[in-house]
Automatic annotation (TrEMBL):
NCBIfam families: PRK02237.1. Keywords: Cell membrane, Membrane, Transmembrane, Transmembrane helix. This is Small multidrug resistance family-3 protein. Its main location: membrane. PANTHER family: UPF0060 MEMBRANE PROTEIN YNFA. GO terms for cellular component: plasma membrane.
């Protein structure tokens, strides 16, 4: 028997929403969804970056502890999205690309190219199409 998906956009945030109107509510929920994807991406990147530093740069083995905790947080955050896992992973991938490019700039100190920016625009467009599609 098929399961019914619950859209993040159809769930009320709380009983006292600080907005009026359907358009504002949808925007607010869309931003909440995007921010949850962004925090999820940061948790995954940190969880992979710390072991990378240990292996590639001879960092302390203690980098593995917060790295493992960050990856556990990443896995838990993925469960907070209110739709099928495959759709969550597909939409999350677009946000991951954007966060990775910001990481490139902020942490690796490498300025993104115009090609990087174009790639982010396309992947975020794909993410938006997948994550914010109308639910029937």
């Amino acid at each position: 028997m098929p399961t019914r998906e619950v859209s993040v956009l159809k769930k009320p945030i709380g009983s006292r929403a600080p907005f009026r109107g359907k358009t504002t509510a949808r925007f607010y929920l869309s931003m909440k969804t995007f921010l949850l994807y962004a925090v999820t991406a940061i948790a995954e990147i940190v969880g992979c970056y710390l072991p990378w530093r240990w292996l590639k740069e001879g960092g302390s083995i203690w980098l593995l502890v917060p790295g493992a905790l960050s990856l556990a947080l990443f896995a838990w955050l993925l469960t907070l999205h209110g739709t099928a896992a495959g759709r969550v992973y597909a939409a999350y991938g677009g946000v991951y690309v954007a966060v990775a490019i910001v990481w490139l700039w902020g942490v690796d100190k490498v300025r993104p190219t115009l090609w990087d920016a174009a790639g982010v625009v396309f992947t975020l467009a794909g993410m938006a199409i997948i994550a914010f599609q109308p639910r029937v």
